Amino acid sequence: xxxxCRRRRGIGSCRRRAGFSLIETAIATVLVAIGVxxxxxxxxxxxxxxxxxxxxxQATYLAQEIREWTLKLPFSDQDDGDKDNPPGPDGTxxxxxxxxxxxxxxxxxSPPRNANGTAVSDMTDWSQHITLEWxxxxxxxxxxxxxxxxxxxxxxxxxxxxxxxxTAAWLVVRRTSE
Length: 178
Ligand SMILES: [Ca+2]
Ligand SMILES: [Ca+2]
Prior knowledge:
By secondary structure, this protein is an alpha+beta fold. It has one domain (45-173). Helix content is 35%, strand content 23%. It has helices spanning 5-9, 11-17, 22-72, and strands at residues 107-109, 126-136, 139-144, 151-160, 163-173. Strands 1, 2, 3, 4 and 5 form a 5-stranded antiparallel beta sheet that branches. A hairpin with a 2-residue loop joins β2 (126-136) and β3. The protein is elongated and about 95 Å long.
């Protein structure tokens, strides 16, 4: 059973316990402030992580669009007039009318392009840099001269405001129907 306040510490002590002292109030205020700061820092960290995650998601989308585009394109030029051109864009660089895979050789698109080769106009601060390497089908680590094989390694570097967010690479093989 708790002793009456008077018997434990005296009347003066009881008066002090009736409310919070200045020091207690100050300590409580500091603790609350620390808690608020911690919450704000946690919220900011969460926001930054979310922004970085969203950026990677957008970059992945732009890399996938290029992959889908390259898988649809033929190896050979569809235009008789450009058929004998060396590998690479057949006119402007980057090529506006892309009708064969090597038209995408060493080009940068900004605004980026989707899987149909159409500009993604609402992502103007993004770019896709595409490089092509022809590989020896018997040794895929061996690079051969452009046009010398039917296996192309496509690489894309996706950047936002000049900062590379993601790089990806894949192989494209000439279809037997070509
Ligand atoms: Ca072409
Ligand atoms: Ca070409």
